[in-house]
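4.2 Preliminary Data

To establish feasibility before requesting continued support, the project team ran the inverse folding procedure on a target of 335 residues. The structure was first converted into the token representation described in Section 3, and no sequence information of any kind was made available to the design step. The complete token record follows.
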């Protein structure tokens, strides 16, 4: 079990004492961090009270920006009465945070019983739409830790090239250079970037970042938030390989989202339908790049189990899209 350093323990203890909570025999229970370098612990000073403590040591410029994004975006969403944990205490200089505990049950585990699945996803969709449309109000792009907007630069560098380098080359052991993919990647990003990107984008809206407690939905890991298109986060949820939704389940959830969108602004529905498949391919490239990098370079072999279903998903998306300009990419993933 990873134990926090003494200074962090003192930070936590001081917070609990200020709250009038007992600190005798306090234990730090390590929590999984998935693909992150951050460290998490559960604190239970008494039987009916628990918090999560997070440490993200700011060792470089990006981690400093990431901590600011975590704080500012988290506060922003919480103030909008959106279901994210309240950040009770923080120390940006050290990368320390204490926040509400949303429990252990993610949507991944909660959606295993198929009879509950659709209702849980419908609840998640309602929260997603609120985050996208309400979260953009008053959102300050200076809080963003990577880019202010999900744009062609992000699509190329952090998704298409990530897929090429981490999955095709380093994970599969195929060639390093893929000049034949340059035009398909450019076409994919150019088309996907035509979607209206004036909404709040979570950018990792998948079942392990969605918590379920007493039937209520809570959202984690918002620090990658920025402006972006509506379809990306929905695609993230639908093609998420952790839950393995069937095609009929995906379609039912997709239609449920469209009903929200139609009520919000009927003019958005047709462009949403048009660009959704391209944004879904972009997200799928990111998934394969990330899972390959994390399993191969970080030794987090848990992710390797999901590479095969993610590849299958990408193949299906490209088949359904039937865009001849993406044929070289289609051939690469069938080789």
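Position-by-position output of the design step:
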């Amino acid at each position: 079990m990873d134990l926090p350093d003494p200074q962090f323990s003192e930070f936590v203890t001081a917070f609990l004492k200020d709250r009038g909570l007992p600190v005798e025999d306090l234990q730090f229970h390590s929590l999984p961090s998935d693909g992150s370098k951050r460290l998490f612990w559960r604190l239970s000073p008494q039987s009916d009270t628990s918090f999560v403590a997070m440490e993200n040591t700011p060792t470089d410029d990006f981690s400093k920006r990431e901590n600011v994004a975590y704080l500012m975006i988290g506060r922003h969403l919480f103030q909008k009465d959106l279901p994210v944990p309240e950040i009770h205490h923080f120390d940006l200089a050290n990368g320390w945070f204490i926040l509400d505990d949303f429990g252990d049950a993610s949507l991944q585990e909660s959606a295993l019983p198929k009879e509950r699945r659709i209702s849980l996803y419908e609840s998640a969709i309602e929260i997603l739409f609120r985050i996208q449309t309400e979260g953009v109000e008053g959102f300050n792009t200076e809080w963003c830790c990577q880019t202010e907007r999900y744009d062609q630069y992000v699509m190329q560098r952090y998704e298409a090239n990530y897929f090429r380098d981490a999955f095709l080359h380093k994970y599969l052991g195929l060639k390093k250079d893929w000049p034949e993919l340059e035009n398909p990647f450019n076409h994919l990003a150019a088309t996907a970037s035509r979607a209206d990107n004036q909404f709040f984008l979570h950018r990792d809206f998948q079942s392990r970042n969605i918590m379920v407690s007493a039937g209520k939905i809570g959202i984690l890991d918002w620090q990658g938030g920025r402006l972006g298109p509506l379809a990306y986060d929905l695609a993230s949820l639908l093609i998420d390989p952790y839950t393995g939704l069937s095609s009929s389940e995906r379609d039912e959830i997709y239609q449920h989202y469209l009903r929200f969108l139609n009520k919000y602004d009927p003019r958005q529905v047709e462009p949403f339908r048009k660009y959704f498949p391209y944004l879904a391919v972009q997200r799928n490239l990111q998934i394969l790049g990330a899972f390959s990098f994390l399993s191969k370079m970080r030794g987090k072999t848990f992710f390797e189990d999901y590479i095969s279903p993610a590849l299958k998903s990408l193949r299906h998306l490209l088949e359904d899209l039937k865009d001849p300009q993406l044929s070289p990419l289609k051939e690469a993933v069938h080789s």
